[in-house]
């Protein structure tokens, strides 16, 4: 199919918009978003503080500190298999936060 | 980090990257996954783009691990064999880590240099041209909001991802501007096909909230295809309402081989996304001062 031959009118798209907009049942899929309580992330983030400073303050203010057991959190490995961070024992382990950007 | 890994993995040290929400949404074209499966695709992409051989784990979609360990984007933890923390840093510091490991495990005679490794250079290119559709220049302060993709109601992947940001005044006074940006997700190798109808959105606002315009179309573009985001700026009056707002995007998801019309929904909340990465301050992307009026807008 040559893409250049596909030209759908704005009217058709408008019709689709109207059709799909009626009677939709929409739910919040992320359980975390169910809460409507507004609370600061950390009590000691103060007005005027930069977000970078806020991040540093938040990191420093967390209960976790050197000598503590690393939290046991259910995540997944790179193949999607269940993985619990409490299993990181038996050797020295380096954990680094990362993402694509 | 890769050089430290090469030197200390053979000494029995385990290295793990923890994949979590993007810190810089839209950089290199990458946008936030809406499913765990997409996060796993991001991990595969990260291995390729970053050229790393370090293992990865993925945080949950609600970023439980990130929240449990201080909410930082690039933090670093060194654990002993009992799983206890022996070092923790807000920002990963490979050279400091190397010194830690030298003290704990032993020094390395000839430390590996980055130049010793065959690391990739630069970011990957988007599949279709960019820089064709002018970007919206935002003035003022905008905070990313939590928007929830309604993945269960779509048979197709979310080829385009929604970024929502609210002007500070909108969150504090109920009136202000709302930014909507639809970004193509490069993990699907799609592009905008400008020979078909442009992107369209529609908002079915709850009672008491007005968004103007509630329906809109992306620009007509002369170039046959591109990868630029489709952006919109709306005027909003939400009064005192905190009701989430449903929005539907209609667009053609296209590759060189196929092109399908997709209609996909998001639910926009009025909660600032603590995992939303950089925000816009004084019209500039980045970290700036926290507006004191914003402090009660972060959901727990």
Give the secondary structure arrangement, pairings included.
The complex is a heterodimer of chains A (101) and B (300).
Chain A: H1 10-21, H2 51-61, E1 74-77, E2 82-84, E3 93-98
Antiparallel strand pairs in A: 1-2
Chain B: H1 2-8, E1 14-19, H2 36-50, E2 55-58, H3 64-68, E3 76-79, E4 85-89, H4 94-104, E5 142-149, E6 160-167, H5 168-173, E7 175-184, E8 192-193, E9 200-203, E10 210-212, E11 215-217, E12 225-226, E13 230-237, E14 245-254, E15 259-272, E16 279-281, E17 284-286
Parallel strand pairs in B: 1-2
Antiparallel strand pairs in B: 3-4, 5-6, 5-15, 6-7, 7-13, 8-12, 9-11, 9-14, 10-13, 14-15, 16-17
Explain how this protein is built.
The complex is a heterodimer of chains A (101) and B (300). Helices cover 23% and strands 13% of the residues of chain A. By secondary structure, chain A is α+β, with helices and mostly antiparallel strands. In chain A, a hairpin with a 4-residue loop joins strand 1 (74-77) and strand 2 (82-84). Chain A is extended. Chain B has 300 residues and is of the alpha+beta class. Helix content of chain B is 15%, strand content 32%. In chain B, the strands form 5 sheets. Chain B has a 9-stranded antiparallel β-sheet. In chain B, strands 1-2 form a two-stranded parallel ribbon. In chain B, strands 3-4 form a two-stranded antiparallel ribbon. In chain B, strand 3 (76-79) and strand 4 form a beta hairpin. Chains A and B meet through helix 1, helix 2, strand 1 and strand 3 of A and helix 1, strand 1, helix 2, strand 2 and helix 3 of B. Strand 1 (74-77) of chain A pairs antiparallel with strand 2 (55-58) of chain B.
